[in-house]
Amino acid sequence: EIKHGRISQLAFLGQITTRAGYHLPGDIDSAGDSFDSFPNGFAAIGGPDSIPGAGTGQILFFIGFLELLVMKDSANGAEPGDFVGDFRNGALDFGWDTFDEETQLSKRAIELNNGRAAMMGILG
Questions:
Q1: Model confidence at 121: pLDDT above 80
Q2: CA dihedral 123, 1, 116, 65 (to 10 degrees)
Q3: What distance in Å separates the CA atoms of residue 124 and residue 121, rounded to the nearest whole number?
């Protein structure tokens, strides 16, 4: 639920950003189609002006690869009892270990609730 909540939060922000008119610069393919030449939202996947099927297949394959092989709860040497989704590689340290147990539980609950709201928001 943590992982899908975080992904939904990113998806929701992406939806808001593209609907506001901000798109990545450059071309999406070698044919010269720009990112802003495709519609927003679900129409980009299945509409008349949608991304070609090969491009959609590449996106789905990449998501499946990440889901099955990279974003595992046991990744990065997680110990039994570790909270899934925590950064374990030491690259980012926002002082998590300095919080007491009650504050950690509160922040985890806030993240879960925000993720749940994003999951509902991205569904429409």
A1: yes
A2: -30
A3: 5
Point out which residues pair with 27 in neighbouring strands. Answer: 34
**Quick one: tokens of 73?**
């709860």
Q: How many CB atoms lie within 10 A of CB 54?
A: 9
pTM over 0.70: no
Task: State pLDDT tens for residues 47-83.
Answer: 888 888 888 899 899 988 887 877 666 555 666 656 6
Q: Is 53 helix (H, G, I), strand (E, B) or coil?
A: helix
3-state secondary structure of 27: strand
CB of 102 closer than 8 Å to CB of 94: no
Token pair 């991205």 in the structure block, residue: 122
DSSP 62-107: HHHHIIIIIS-TTGGGPPTTPPTT---SSS--SSGGGS-HHHHHHH
